[in-house]
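Worked example

This section walks through a single chain of length 93. The input is the sequence exactly as stored; nothing has been trimmed or padded.
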Amino acid sequence: MPVKVRIPTPLMKLTNNQAEISAEGETIADILNNLESQFAGIKERICEENGAPRRFINIYLNEEDIRFLEGEKTQIKDGDEISIIPAIAGGAR
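Given that input, the structure is written out below as tokens.
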């Protein structure tokens, strides 16, 4: 079941400058593995060595943060949309 994955600008160099790509899997972990099979090196930018998303990377499934669902074990269904969003910090005093 393919789902749409939105890729942030800093990672688009790994996806041949594609902002949206299609990936398949039953869980977020499967989707991340599928992304890695399509675009070598992308998973190490998103995940820790144990496969969990890095703490400064936010992953949303249909606008819901997966941290408040089942993390990388969150189930995916046909037509879902996943957004990968790096955290932004900083500001003016």
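What to look for: Residues 5 and 33 are 13 Å apart (CA to CA).
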